[in-house]
Amino acid sequence: MSAPAIDPPATTARTGTVVRIGRVSGIVRWRQLVVPLTAVVVLVLLSAVSLGRGDFPIGVPDVLRTLAGLGDGTQDFIILELRAPRVVVGLLVGLALGVAGALFQTFARNPLASPDTLGITMGASVGAVAAIVLSSGGAFGGALATLGIPLAALLGALLVGVLLFGLTWRAGIDGYRLVLIGIALWSVSTALVDWLLTHAEIYDAAAAYVWITGSLNARTWDDAAPLAVALVVLLPLALGASRALGVLQFGDDTARGLGVRLQTAQAAVVLIAIGCVAFAVSAAGPITFVALVVPQIALRLTGGSRPPLLASGLLGAVLVVGADLVTRTVLPQALPVGILTAVLGAPYLLWLLVRGRRQFT
């Protein structure tokens, strides 16, 4: 059998390159391919540099040889057992938050829609702070101590996510109502965290403050495993919902006209995003503003009509791993990675608010 003839690619000015293989044709948008591939290369280099930094410095070539199985025993132990869990957790958390932010922002058609503003990360904080503060008091505190901080944070995020879904649902989900109810849940969760901290012992309050800033310190493979398993399930579902998501951005009436099962698609998108956030926050705490900033960066780099899922996830991983590397090596004192992401993300949030006000007026 002869190979199918490949027609010369026809380049369009705005949409990309049209490639035809026999009777099959498609549009290749090169920016949407180059950005994820570049993000992967940057992520590999950042991870290798991060794995080599510490009290026992290891060069990038030696790190790469160790990852390929060619390192000596000492390097294997330092890189694979002591440093790799931190980098892997940061990578997975950034990937999950980037994808979740892209899902929320595309669905709500609002760049302000993110797990931070919708209250999900603060819901995880309620669970974690309750597990820290109440673990020594009564039967309820004993139950929280048995659960542990990661599982309590997971349950807190899922609970707020279910409340967000249930309160927003009215024969479908409206993006504007989603943001408003999310802000209300964020306020309630913040008040609960403040109340718990005011009743905490000083050492419990200090431990709780460290957790709610978001940190990758002392992470182990036990922290990475549940998140990895969750992403194995959730990421294919998110990519599978990409077609419906692309239609949902044009409005409910257009989606119905194109044959999308509106309520099913809306429920699937929101629940997948909630799951990604819940597992990410349970692994490393609420690393804020990643899900808010990264999808908009990916949107501008790829030049598409909506935040791309894959590029957003990879850029989220680059941001978290890179921020953790900066906090450990550049700053005079090591800080939780959530502090740096907040410093980077807060000005962007203010810019979005000012820009939206100018457009409104």
Describe this structure in words.
The chain has a single domain, classed as Orthogonal Bundle (ABC transporter involved in vitamin B12 uptake, BtuC). It contains 15 helices and 3 strands. The chain has helices spanning 30-52, 60-67, 73-108, 120-133, 138-147, 149-168, 175-198, 202-213, 221-240, 242-248, 252-257, 262-284, 290-302, 309-329, 337-360, and strands at 10-11, 17-21, 24-28. A 3-stranded antiparallel beta sheet has the order 1-2-3. Helix 4 crosses helix 5 and helix 6 (149-168) packs antiparallel against helix 7 (175-198). The longest helix has 36 residues, at 73-108. The protein starts with 9 loop residues before the first strand and ends with a helix. Mean pLDDT is 82; it is low at 1-14.
Q: In short, what is this structure?
A:
The chain is built from 15 helices and 3 strands.
Topology (elements, then pairings):
Elements (H helix, E strand, L loop, with lengths): L9 E2 L5 E5 L2 E5 L1 H23 L7 H8 L5 H36 L11 H14 L4 H10 L1 H20 L6 H24 L3 H12 L7 H20 L1 H7 L3 H6 L4 H23 L5 H13 L6 H21 L7 H24 L1
Antiparallel strand pairs: 1-2, 2-3
Key phrases:
single chain; 361 residues; mainly alpha; ABC transporter involved in vitamin B12 uptake, BtuC; three-stranded antiparallel β-sheet; 15 helices; 3% strand; globular
Oligomerization status of the protein chains: single chain
What is the assigned CATH homologous superfamily? ABC transporter involved in vitamin B12 uptake, BtuC
CATH class: Mainly Alpha
Domains, number: 1
**Beta-strand content bin:** under 5%
Name the average pLDDT. Answer: 82
Rounded to the nearest angstrom, the radius of gyration is: 22 Å
Approximate shape: globular
The span between the termini is 65 Å
Low-pLDDT runs of 5+ residues are: 1-14
GO biological process, one term: siderophore-iron import into cell
Protein name: Iron complex transport system permease protein
GO molecular function, one term: transmembrane transporter activity
Main location: membrane
